[in-house]
Amino acid sequence: DTVMLGQLGEVAMSGSSLGNQIGFIYQIMNLGLTAGAGVLTSQYWGKGDVEAINRCMGVALYIGVAVAAIMALVLFCFPTFVMGLVTNNTLLIEMGAPYLRIVGISYIFNAASAVYVGMQRSTKNPVLGMVVFAASMLLNTFLNYILIFGKFGAPALGITGAALATLTARVVEFLLTWTYALRDHRVPLRLRAMLRP
Fold first, then answer.
1. In angstroms, rounded to a whole number, what is the distance separating the alpha carbons of residues 99 and 152?
2. Rounded to an integer, what is the distance from CA 10 to the centroid of its chain?
3. Closest by alpha carbon to 117, among 109, 127, 108, 107?
4. Judging by beta carbons within 10 Å of its beta carbon (0-12, 13-18, 19+), is residue 46 exposed, middle or buried?
5. What digits encode the pLDDT tens for the residues 117-172?
6. How far is it, in rounded angstroms, from Cα 50 to Cα 187?
7. How much is the pTM?
8. 26 contacts: CB under 8 Å, gap ≥ 6
9. Between 18 and 70, where is the model more confident?
10. What is the DSSP letter of 185?
11. 178 contact partners, CB below 8 Å, separation of at least 6
């Protein structure tokens, strides 16, 4: 986002960069959650306890999605206030607020994907995360090009286009992850254990 928005000028680039500072706080919390769940998952994988892995994943999903949903709600309802926490420049606040409103929704999808990918990494399948997140990053970059600059007949949306590209990439990331999850027989999902951990 920042590299492509930099071609539109300093204001657009700075608006997204400041908005991404909020995203960085979310990512730190998400990394802590998946790392903690990963330690437990590794232990249960060593014991061959798939039921406990599903329970651990259920707890992580509840916490991760709840935190992401709260952040998304705050960013959607009060983007100007949140931008005001990181800058007092009114132009940057006006530029970054619509970006935050849209990008915040992507946190929910990313939280669910990150928990499952973290579980797979802890059960000796790091390739899934690499493939899913690489596909998401490539899609995000391609959509940024289309939506920021208005290529292939799309309207030039600038910073809003960057936010929409990020949200779309996260939704696709979520769909890829959970499509894999429903077909995985190595660590099969047990919804009873996940939903009532």
1. 22
2. 25
3. 127
4. exposed
5. 999 999 999 999 999 999 999 999 999 999 989 999 999 998 899 999 999 999 99
6. 6
7. 0.91
8. 67, 68, 71, 107
9. 70
10. S
11. 112, 113, 116
